[in-house]
Each structure stands twice: as C-alpha cells, then as structure tokens.
C-alpha cells in the first residue's frame, strides 16, 4: 500500500473536558426552511434591467470557451462560434428558452437517507469550507494541509448536523495532485454519511466521482440520471472565460444527470467592474453561460446558480469578504435566481487572518446576505479563513455556532394561547420572576437556543472556568468532538470495492504521469 492508501491514525489527544466548555449542544439533523421573506434591494424593473444587460454581454461580447467539445455543444445548440478566438456568442432568445429547462427544485440522496437534502424554494443547506491549501489551529498555527488532518475535519463535518454535506475541507498537499481527489472522496465516504461532492477540475476527476458514487449506492453508471447522488461545482475564470478543465468536468457531470453549481468569481474592481451592479451584471452573464451549457448537454439536469460577487481592497488589490457590497450582491443574486426559478448558492466568507472579531463579524455579514437572500446552498459555511486560503479548526466550530443560530432565526414563531402566556403572567406577582413557573419549567430544555461556543455566564463564573475566549473554547471543543467521534456504519464489502477502485485508478494515473514526463 502507498502512503496515500494507508488509513490515517487518529490523533493521540487526551480525552478531557474543559470547564465551562459545552460540546453536546449541536442541533439535531433537520431540513431547514426559511420562513422569512427575502430582502430585495432592487425593484422588479431594475432586476429586469440587469437581466437584459447580461444578455447583451453574452450576445455582443461573448464568452471565451477553451474546450473544443464545449464549443461544439454550444454550436449545436444554436450559438455563434469563433473557433479561432475560442469565443461563444449566445443570442438572448436562445438563453431565455434554454434556462427554462432547469428544475426549480431537486433532491440529493445521501448514503444515510435521513440526511438527503432538497435544494430550491425556501430550503437552506450548509456545507463546510472547500478548497484551501492551508489548515490552521491554535496549537500548530498555519501550515499546508495533510490527509490525516483532512480526515479529522471530515469527522467534524459528520459530528455537526448543521453541515449537510460531506464535501469540502482543504487540499491534502502530502498526496499527489493528480490522484488526491480519490482519497478525498474516499474520506467523505468513510467518515461521513452525508451528501457527496467531487472535484470538477477535469472530466477524469468527475468520472471518478461518478464511478465511486455508483459503487457506494449500488447503481449502474447508466442509471445515474434517474437519481441525484453526487454534485460538483465549477468557477468561471472571470472575466468571461470558461476554461478546459472546468468545462470538461461540467460536461461529464451533466451527462450523468448530476447537479453542477456554476459560480463566477467576480470580485468588483479586479475580475469584474468596480460597481456592484456592473459586477453582478457580469456575474449573471457568466452564470447564465455555464447554466446554458449544462442544459445543452442534458436538458432538465439539476443546476445551481452560484453567486460570489464581493469586492477588493482598492489599496492593495486583496480580496475583501463579508463586506456590505457582498451582502448587497447576495440579496440581488437571490432576486435574479427567483426570477429564473433556479436554485441559488451563496457563501459564508471573511478576509481575516485569524479567528478574531473581524472573522466573526465579516462571516455574520456574509451569512446574513446568504440567508436573507434565500440561498439554498451556503458554501464555505464552516471553517473559512484568510479569504479562503485557510481552513481553520477553531473557525469551523465558531461557524457551526453561527449557522445554528441562523437556522433557529428562520424558524417560524407560533402565536397561540400557550405562547401568549397569559396564564403564566397571572402566576407571577408584580416585581416577581418567571424562573419557577410551570410555563417556564415545562419548556426549560427547549425554550431558547443552546450555544456551543458562546459563554453566557457572568464574569466571575467565566473567570473561574478558565477565562477562555471564544477561539480557546472552540479549540477545546473540536478536540473533544474528534475524540468522541463515532464513525457511521458502512458495508465492508462496499468499502473494499471502493478501495480497490481507488488503488486501480492510482496505478493508471501513475502511468499517465510517466507518459507526460
């Protein structure tokens, strides 16, 4: 067995409880629906103006598409193609007609059927951070990610049911680049029983994900279009470029009837116009171009519109996240998605370099934009740090707290005789208190949100318990959660077949590397 095939050994951490640090306050698994009306900054006419401007961009300026097969698909669908310049031009009528085939809502099957999800409508789902090259914690600081640490991260994804997906984490840089997607997906399957995601950076990686999903769910490859069992996302290479690997991954997944999230990377002032409205117009054009491609490959395939418009620090050019501009963009993108009746993906992001107040308030701004924009999938929900370069163990726990609070916030309130509590008021004399009333005691365990990280004690009790700040409490919580982690059951025969597939594909990819050298 190669090093990348060896089961990572669990970290040797002492099992201990830290005074004042709760670890069992995780909300149970549930399907979250947003009962609140969305925030809509723009009028219907203004949204239509952006839509029409986006269509002009696609018709007059076009998209550069470097993949020959993708251009062929566009051509057969009615687009105008300039092969020499690798440009694709989409007529407005073509775009309007094709995007009508996108399902407004779809369900995605998890290994544990109780953890399947629905995207669209007013459903909200959260996923963990995905894509960073680095990992950090308070003990060892910032460092390149490793596979063993990624497996620990997946265990936390499994532990906290506010995270609905197995995908995400960080790149295990101790594994070969061309085969690490196999190990990453195997870790998703081994350590979680939630919905799967696969890298779409090339058709071969998408095909591997599809094959492994077939093994896990016991279905034939040709039967994949009948059920959604794995998803993936692409980024357009803003401005106005779909590159070869991304196009290849999109085509492969769409052919198999599996959902693709199409997300332009439009940072105002850098990869998009400096005005928020201009950036959103470009974002919309790029997203529609990718969505059209999914429907040309397979009409009716589930597709998600990804919004990621934010801005940059104009003094340095560095990306800025969790800004007022990003929040506005999320709300407006939600309006566009509802106009198209296409599921919406947004993000929980921040630009802080540490688990500090900035990381929290910027995350709260981006979460607010996503939730009140009625995003159906909130990507990077837990763990994002340093503009997406770092996956933090402590930030993951703090984000779990924030996502759980948002989930409770969107729960509808019930107004009836019991909740009006007139009888409870009758029980308490003026100047008294409600701590001991029957109305309070009957609701003692469920009256309010129970925090994971937040410390609601007074100063004296907080000091006696160690005087830990939120990052220090989160550090103790994630360690204890991993120590107490319970691996979900998986049929040994299925696991063996998956491991054999991974080993076989690694041998084939080693051969490919040798040829390339």
Structure write-up:
By secondary structure, the chain is an alpha/beta fold. It has helices at residues 44-61, 68-76, 92-98, 147-159, 180-191, 203-217, 244-255, 276-297, 324-340, 357-372, 393-409, 417-420, 422-427, 438-441, 459-464, 470-483, 492-516, and strands at 32-33, 63-65, 80-82, 87-89, 105-108, 117-120, 123-128, 134-137, 141-144, 196-197, 230-236, 241-242, 260-264, 267-268, 303-306, 310-312, 319-320, 344-347, 377-382, 384-385, 390-392. Helix content is 42%, strand content 15%. The strands form 5 sheets. Strands 1-7-19-18-15-13-11-10 form an 8-stranded mixed β-sheet.
Topology:
Layout: E1 32-33, H1 44-61, E2 63-65, H2 68-76, E3 80-82, E4 87-89, H3 92-98, E5 105-108, E6 117-120, E7 123-128, E8 134-137, E9 141-144, H4 147-159, H5 180-191, E10 196-197, H6 203-217, E11 230-236, E12 241-242, H7 244-255, E13 260-264, E14 267-268, H8 276-297, E15 303-306, E16 310-312, E17 319-320, H9 324-340, E18 344-347, H10 357-372, E19 377-382, E20 384-385, E21 390-392, H11 393-409, H12 417-420, H13 422-427, H14 438-441, H15 459-464, H16 470-483, H17 492-516
Parallel strand pairs: 2-12, 7-19, 8-21, 10-11, 11-13, 13-15, 14-16, 15-18, 18-19
Antiparallel strand pairs: 1-7, 2-4, 3-4, 5-6, 8-9, 16-17, 20-21
């Amino acid at each position: 067995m190669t090093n990348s095939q060896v089961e990572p050994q669990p970290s040797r951490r002492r099992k201990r409880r830290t005074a004042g640090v709760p670890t069992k306050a995780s909300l149970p698994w549930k399907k979250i629906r947003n009962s609140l009306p969305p925030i809509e900054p723009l009028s219907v006419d203004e949204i239509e103006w952006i839509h029409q401007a986006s269509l002009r961009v696609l018709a007059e300026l076009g998209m550069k598409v470097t993949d020959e097969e993708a251009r062929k698909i566009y051509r057969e669908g009615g687009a105008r193609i300039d092969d020499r310049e690798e440009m694709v031009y989409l007529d407005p009528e073509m775009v309007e007609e094709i995007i009508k085939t996108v399902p407004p809502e779809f369900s995605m099957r998890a290994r544990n059927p109780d953890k399947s999800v629905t995207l669209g409508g007013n459903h909200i789902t959260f996923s963990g951070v995905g894509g960073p090259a680095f990992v950090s914690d308070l003990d060892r600081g910032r460092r390149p990610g490793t596979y063993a640490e990624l497996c620990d991260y997946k265990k936390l994804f499994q532990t906290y049911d506010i995270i609905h997906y197995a995908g995400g984490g960080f790149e295990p840089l101790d594994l070969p680049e061309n085969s690490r997607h196999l190990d990453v997906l195997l870790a998703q399957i081994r350590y979680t029983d939630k919905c799967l995601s696969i890298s779409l950076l090339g058709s071969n990686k998408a095909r591997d994900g599809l094959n492994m999903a077939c093994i896990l769910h016991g279905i034939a490859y040709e039967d994949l279009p009948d059920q959604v069992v794995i998803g993936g996302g692409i980024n357009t290479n803003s401005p106005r470029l779909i590159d070869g690997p991304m196009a290849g991954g999109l085509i492969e997944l769409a052919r198999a009837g599996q959902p693709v999230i199409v997300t332009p990377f439009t940072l105002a002032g850098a990869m998009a116009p400096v005005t928020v409205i201009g950036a959103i117009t470009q974002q919309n054009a790029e997203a529609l171009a990718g969505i059209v491609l999914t429907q040309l490959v397979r009409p009716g395939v589930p597709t998600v519109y990804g919004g990621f418009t934010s801005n940059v620090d104009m003094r340095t050019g560095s990306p800025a996240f969790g800004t007022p501009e990003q929040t506005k963009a999320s709300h407006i993108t939600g309006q566009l998605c509802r106009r198209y009746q296409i599921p919406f993906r947004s993000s929980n992001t921040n630009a802080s370099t540490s688990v500090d107040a900035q990381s929290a308030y910027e995350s709260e701004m981006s979460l607010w934009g996503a939730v009140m924009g009625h995003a159906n999938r909130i990507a990077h929900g837990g763990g994002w740090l340093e503009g997406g370069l770092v996956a933090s163990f402590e930030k993951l726990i703090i984000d779990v707290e924030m996502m759980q609070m948002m989930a409770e916030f969107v729960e509808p309130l019930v107004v009836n005789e019991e909740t009006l509590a007139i009888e409870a008021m009758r029980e308490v004399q003026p100047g008294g208190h409600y701590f001991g009333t029957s109305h309070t005691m009957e609701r003692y365990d469920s009256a309010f949100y129970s925090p994971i990280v937040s410390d609601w004690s007074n100063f004296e009790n907080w000091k006696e318990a160690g005087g830990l700040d939120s990052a220090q409490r989160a550090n103790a919580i994630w360690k204890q959660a991993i120590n107490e982690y319970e691996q979900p059951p998986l049929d040994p025969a299925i696991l063996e077949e998956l491991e054999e597939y991974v080993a076989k594909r690694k041998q084939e990819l080693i051969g490919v590397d040798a040829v390339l050298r």
